[in-house]
């Protein structure tokens, strides 16, 4: 077997996968079996290349770039004139040695180290009033060996756009190396543990004394957990929301660029679907439909939703086996069946233009959560012979209604979340969207039906203020992030400062994101506490949501930290030094 050509630690020039641009990289590893090198860019970004895609630094000449005398947004690229391989030099006869020289020149890949880090850094300095690096003796540009006409000027913005498109078009989905959730054993366990947790919480809420000491709760007969009519109602609900999703109302927007540079289109009509659902529920109530039917068959609805999510997950995995490599999820392409089934193998599974993941993210489960809460409110009034719902129930319904309406009103923002851009659509998201969200997030309302809790108006006012504070932090932080991701050059964001990265994106270091690294999570936790407080302090069960939410967000925060460190490298380390606190200021 031939020996390796480049040693660990050696600095080489590596070609971007599938492209013509070469970058200065450091060798960090080598796979003898596949003869593939692992290399690292200066900001920490890693990639794998074959030996044929790597050149020694000695093959490239480095020259100082000359900044153009015009606007800072324009620069002149230093050039090397080269005659065409098809023509001899003027005044010389062609020879076999010249032919070989021309062949060697042809084999030398065109060289341009103009990384997005520099481009973004220059933009940042202009936003903050600092001089552009092109106004100083910028030595980051490398000679371009190409058949170009002399004195060709390329506009700065055009350079940036061209390189970004090249990068997006040439990146290929690689195998998932680092497994989350405990790997294969952990994900296999979670497939059974998550449904068991939901059923346990619902059974506990039905007990007169839902104390954790009363474990395990009495188990119902298996035949009582399934009713075909209930499953039919669930299917009707799911396909009704699918119908609303297909309605040609609302604007169509583009998502973030995929690894192949393509942008998917999404119709933003979740709020319209909510309004139509509210009208349909109003009609049912007008015709004396007993909505508390949901409360009476709550466990059966949960079982139906779990069965449907499992069937959907199996369908998604089978379909993902036919998907092209570039359409697979970066987090669910491990090659292990159970792991990929759980995390989701395909990133954006679609039936025609119907995006299954995007649809399930906000429609059946999130809107269903509000309908379940309303059913619990009506069930409380009926069971306790009340003419009006309790103040605790009103607070829980109002707070969570605000949360859902906000998500649907700002539906476009979900397109920038990790669920859409990074995670595949498998059992984890299918079960989470269709079972966990509607049946666990409504736990407080379900608890209050069997365990009414009276609170005073001053206490209710204090809880309301707490929820408003959490909501303000959550919404303003998310809006700031989404606006910046969509258009960093927006004049409204001119006061924000950020650290540029090699990916072309920036890391905000002022505003909410300069306060803590995940201010939206801080707002989420404050709101979760406000949703649980109306249930009183007799039992810890209503606070399961708060405990779960803290654990979930700490896990997601750790996930985000790891993902961002890999993605942004040294820029992320600078950001962490600038913003030391993760979720809780001065604590964590």
From TrEMBL:
Which GO MF terms are attached to this record? Delta14-sterol reductase activity; DNA binding
What Enzyme Commission number does this protein have?
1.3.1.70
> Matching SUPFAM superfamilies, A to Z?
Tudor/PWWP/MBT
Q: Per its UniProt entry, what is the enzyme's top EC class, as one word?
A: oxidoreductase
Residue numbers spanned by region Disordered: 55-105
Catalytic function, reaction form: 4,4-dimethyl-5alpha-cholesta-8,24-dien-3beta-ol + NADP(+) = 4,4-dimethyl-5alpha-cholesta-8,14,24-trien-3beta-ol + NADPH + H(+); 4,4-dimethyl-8,14-cholestadien-3beta-ol + NADPH + H(+) = 4,4-dimethyl-5alpha-cholest-8-en-3beta-ol + NADP(+); 5alpha-cholest-8,14-dien-3beta-ol + NADPH + H(+) = 5alpha-cholest-8-en-3beta-ol + NADP(+)
Kindly list the places in or outside the cell where this protein is found, as annotated in its UniProt entry.
Cytoplasm; Endoplasmic reticulum membrane; Nucleus inner membrane
Q: Give the CC-aspect GO terms.
A: endoplasmic reticulum membrane; nuclear inner membrane
The alphabetized list of GO BP terms reads: cholesterol biosynthetic process
Instruction: Name the pathway it acts in.
Output: Steroid biosynthesis; cholesterol biosynthesis
Q: How does it sit in the membrane?
A: Multi-pass membrane protein
Q: Which family does it belong to?
A: Belongs to the ERG4/ERG24 family.
Listed name of the protein: Delta(14)-sterol reductase LBR
In which organism is this protein found?
Nycticryphes semicollaris
């Amino acid at each position: 077997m031939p020996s390796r050509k480049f040693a660990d630690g050696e600095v080489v020039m590596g070609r971007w996968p599938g492209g013509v641009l070469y970058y200065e990289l450091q060798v960090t590893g080598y796979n003898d079996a596949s003869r593939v090198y692992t290399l690292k860019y200066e900001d920490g970004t890693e990639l794998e290349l074959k030996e044929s895609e790597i050149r020694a630094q000695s093959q490239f000449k480095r020259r100082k770039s000359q900044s153009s005398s015009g606007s800072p947004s324009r620069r002149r690229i230093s050039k090397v004139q080269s005659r065409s391989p098809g023509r001899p030099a003027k005044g010389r006869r062609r020879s076999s040695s010249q032919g070989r020289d021309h062949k060697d020149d042809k084999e030398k890949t065109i060289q341009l180290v103009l990384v997005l880090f520099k481009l973004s850094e220059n933009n940042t300095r202009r936003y903050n009033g600092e001089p552009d690096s092109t106004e100083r003796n910028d030595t980051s540009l490398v000679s371009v060996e190409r058949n170009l006409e002399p004195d060709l000027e390329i506009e700065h913005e055009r350079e940036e756009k061209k390189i970004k498109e090249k990068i997006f078009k040439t990146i290929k989905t690689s195998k998932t190396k680092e497994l989350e959730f405990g790997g294969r054993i952990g994900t296999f366990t979670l497939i059974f543990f998550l449904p068991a947790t939901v059923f346990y919480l619902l059974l506990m809420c039905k007990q007169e004394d839902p104390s954790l000491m009363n474990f395990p709760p009495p188990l119902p007969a298996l035949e009582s957990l399934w009713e075909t009519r209930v499953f039919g109602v669930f299917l009707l609900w799911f396909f009704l929301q699918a119908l609303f999703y297909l309605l040609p109302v609302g604007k169509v927007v583009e998502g973030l660029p995929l690894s192949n540079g393509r942008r998917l289109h999404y119709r933003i009509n979740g709020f319209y679907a909510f309004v139509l659902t509210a009208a349909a529920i109003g009609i049912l109530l007008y015709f004396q439909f007993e909505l508390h039917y949901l409360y009476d068959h709550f466990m059966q609805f949960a079982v139906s939703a779990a069965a449907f999510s499992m069937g959907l997950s199996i369908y998604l995995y089978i379909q993902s086996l036919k998907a092209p490599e570039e359409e697979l999820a970066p987090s669910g392409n491990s090659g292990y069946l159970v792991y990929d089934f759980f995390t989701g193998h395909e990133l954006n599974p679609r039936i025609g233009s119907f995006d299954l993941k995007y649809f399930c993210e906000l429609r059946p489960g999130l809107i269903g959560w509000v309908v379940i809460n309303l059913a619990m409110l009506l069930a409380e009034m009926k069971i306790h012979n009340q003419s009006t719902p309790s103040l605790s129930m009103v607070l829980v319904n109002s707070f969570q209604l605000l949360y859902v309406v906000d998500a649907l009103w700002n539906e476009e923002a979900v397109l920038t979340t990790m669920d859409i851009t990074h995670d595949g659509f498998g059992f984890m998201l299918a079960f989470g969207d269709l079972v966990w969200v509607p049946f666990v997030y409504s736990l407080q309302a379900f608890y209050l039906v069997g365990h009414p809790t009276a609170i005073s108006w001053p206490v209710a006012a204090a809880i309301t203020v707490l929820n408003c504070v959490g909501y303000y932090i959550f919404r303003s932080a998310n809006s700031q992030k989404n606006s910046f991701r969509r258009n960093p050059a927006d004049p409204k964001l001119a006061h924000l400062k950020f650290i540029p990265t090699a990916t072309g994106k920036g890391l905000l270091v002022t505003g909410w994101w300069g306060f803590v690294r995940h201010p939206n999570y801080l707002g989420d936790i404050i709101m979760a506490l406000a949703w649980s407080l109306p249930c009183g302090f007799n039992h810890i069960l209503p606070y399961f949501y708060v405990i779960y939410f803290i654990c979930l967000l700490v896990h997601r925060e750790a996930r985000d930290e790891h993902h961002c460190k890999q993605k942004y490298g040294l820029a992320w380390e600078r950001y962490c030094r600038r913003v030391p606190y993760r979720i809780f200021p001065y604590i964590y």
